[in-house]
Amino acid sequence: MSAKLQANLKCMDIVFDIPDDLAISMRNKKRWQLALASVNCSRALLSLFGEVLAKNERKFSPIPSDMNSISKNVSNFSEVECVVDIDKPPAASYFSNVDQSILSRLVKEKSLDGLAKLGAVEGISASLRTDVQQGINDDVEGILRRKEAFGTNTHLKPPTKSLLHFVCEAFKDSTILILLVCAALSLGFGVKEHGLKEGWYDGGSIFVAVFLVISVSAISDFRQNKQFDRLSKISSNISVEVVRNGRRQEISIFEIVVGDVVCLKIGDQVPADGLFIEGHSLQVDESSMTGESDHVEVNKDQHPFLFSGTKVADGYGKMLVTSVGMSTTWGEMMSTISRSPDEQTPLQARLNELTSSIGKVGLAVAFLVLVVLLVRYFTGNTRDENGNKEFNGNKTRVDDVINAVVGIIAAAVTIVVVAIPEGLPLAVTLTLAYSMKRMMADQAMVRKLSACETMGSATTVCTDKTGTLTMNQMKVTKFWLGKNSIEGEKITVIAPDVADLLHQGVGLNTTGSVYRSAVSGTGFEFSGSPTEKAILSWAVLELNMDIDKVKQDFTVLSVEAFNSEKKRSGVLLKKVQDGTAHAHWKGAAEMILAMCSHYYDAQGSITGLDDCERLKFAEIIQGMASSSLRCIAFACKPVLGGELISKKIRGTIPDNGLTLLALVGLKDPCRPGAKQAVEDCQYAGVNVKMITGDNIFTARTIARECGILSPDQEANDGSVVEGVEFRSYTEEERMEKVEIIRVMARSSPLDKLLMVQCLRKKGHVVAVTGDGTNDAPALKEADIGLSMGIQGTEVAKESSDIVILDDNFASVATVLRWGRCVYNNIQKFIQFQLTVNVAALAINFVAAVSAGEVPLTAVQLLWVNLIMDTLGALALATENPTKELMEKKPVGRNEPLITNVMWRNLLAQALYQISVLLTLHFKGKDIFHVTKKVNETLIFNTFVLCQVFNEFNARKIEKKNVFEGIHKNKLFMGIIGITLVLQVVMVEFLNKFADTERLNWRQWGVCIEISAASWPIGFLVKFLPVPERPLVSYLKLKRLKFM
Hints:
The chain contains 39 helices and 26 strands. The N and C termini lie far apart (101 Å). 51% of the residues lie in helices and 14% in strands.
């Protein structure tokens, strides 16, 4: 036996002696040696028991997880040769003893027995090669191996709708189908009568025109759908805090892998399925999974299971990720659900009603035209190009009759196509899609389309202070110990026992963390909320706190997490060395002061806190608050044995009779553009109210700096109140005073909700900003909920309509400007399109009744439809916000969509077009001495050019200078240019397709001169005054309320 062992050891020495000239990294050399050591040691041990090794080749795991796996692997090795892949080991071999399906089933079934059999959280973390404190220690290659072994944290989505889907949707339009039938009949009869070479023009032209309309509509819808998918992906890409290599860091939820240690706090979304490691008071809202509204308490013993997609309702903790992506319950569920961009906004609903009503008028006109044309045809009152009667009773061939009837039907149906302003919903879709894209660049992500429109009507904005009006860059600038201000070198005079208590209160009563980095210039990295980071950096860098030593010396017995109701957090600690215990509290200065009966001075002496002393501390707090500092107090209390046992059993922390440790003031300067943004909102007729949890003095100072309060405003005029005061008002008092209030300090989320409800009852359109979980009710109650992208919790974001990505109030003002722009752009397009509708219907109807023919053919009308519906929508719906938008008052909830000014503009232009085109129709041949075909071309060309010139008028509904800022809108100019080029092609080159004749320079000049008259008419008509009362109200028709 000893001889065999010696032989094996000698063999190991030979194998370990790797020549230096081989290009093998040190890491791979170590892996080689570890593999060979495992193999040879196992062989030596097995040989003692006389086991024979099997002869086959197999790759060997370089880092075996346990001795059993070693024996199994070794038994498969040949005594003669062994192949070891030291460069690219398979990913599965690293986790050969981990079954993903078992882990997934363990969490889904909430199996405590199964968890115990696998060695609890510690056993599973060891199998996943995770340190529960340090996280995973993998490099990029290691992360990729985990993704290969367990999958990525993404879920399969239903396939996106293809372009073909939208083409099929466009074909479902009944008018389009009728036109296609007419085109098919016209094509058939034309080919039969004139042969394929000449007979396809009429029917083929309608086919091509319909194809163009369908193509443009389908491509537009397809692009909008793709944009919605992109925005949806961005909105679901949330940041998650994990521990990797001992360092807290934020990564994308899509980068989470099995084995990650994730840090959870109030408002976070659980990013994957996993197991609870440690934490305090962790409660999870599982209603998205189970439908139950009650919060579930998560702990290590009874319920350690966490599910992807659920929300943290209270407390904080760490979890070990066991399943990601499609292996989670949430992933399986979400793979069957797709968010639809078909959400109909209120404005779209109103426009659909308007479209339906205009369509009915168009249908009635088309029916009358159809009847008149059929009667005139069958009574012999229509003549062909040679002046002969088209219908001569029995002498007329059946084919000719059918062909004529099909032409009449096609003309009537085309009138319906032109009359129905289907471009209105398209214009809304385009302007919303365009504004969403541009708002994204302006740091605002739209989650609900309706918010784009509603924001334009906002009359009041209720905003937070911290991070929205201020920069959220906290720094401790004041430190009071007792009644002494400690600055600079004075910190060294703090008594050691007081310093120790401060270290405990700061280092253990926190949700932040400190990481000592060799890379960072300061040597430390701080994570957590801005307040936590500021206090931790102050304690580490100025008070010389060693957070690792503090954590080693003390055990946390109980924790009360911070919430916006109590505005404090507490922790119960026990010293490991002697078992003594302390309760520590941290929070809003005046609230912590109210819990104290004593205070520490700089020498470490404890002094009683009588009314006189309490008043002095209140003055210190007020002084810091007046300097716009956020005041935080620290207090503690020794807890004796009996009290410790009872408090530990009940899970509570002593919160009375405390000793005040210290007061700190944190500076958070106002954002540079906040004051200007507030002034912009006020200039636009929008009231700005600040609702904050801060001290009333801090709130008043910041409100003055930002322009919410004027510098000379009296302190007792009712514009500044505290939440508790507002809450105590009667319903009548609240409704009376809510208009006056500009600032509400020390408010709770319920106070914010109450404020929103009162304002809405008063008829205001309210926008509210929020970042916390408890802000969700107010965000949902408001007309527009604005959540914060940086500090906002996932719960707040999901409850909001728009996410402000940079947490800046200036972005709120930008959203307001874009909201007004959306509404204004749609009004521009309505004015433009209704002008075309009125003119086209009137011209065709009068011509059909009087002359028995329509001046515009089906193809020509379809071309006009394409210009006004799609190209017109693109040109007018993509105008950028202008300064004059913020000079108007907000649009009321019930104001008509078509204002009196719009009626004045569109009727003036429509009447001009009708009079000019009917004159051309009846007298054009005599005036210009041209043929009938040339005259019809002049009518068509003039009608199209009138719309092109009128597009300029539609840019400004009220302003006389319609060319202002036109050089900035390259898309508008591009579309005008494309329209003109295509019109020239239609008239000059596609004569057979468009049924036109080529025009000479003089005739083109006449068309342009007649059309250009739209500009002076548009200028002059704006001098006419209009009544304030909407015209529709005189009709007293409920059906027209949408107008």
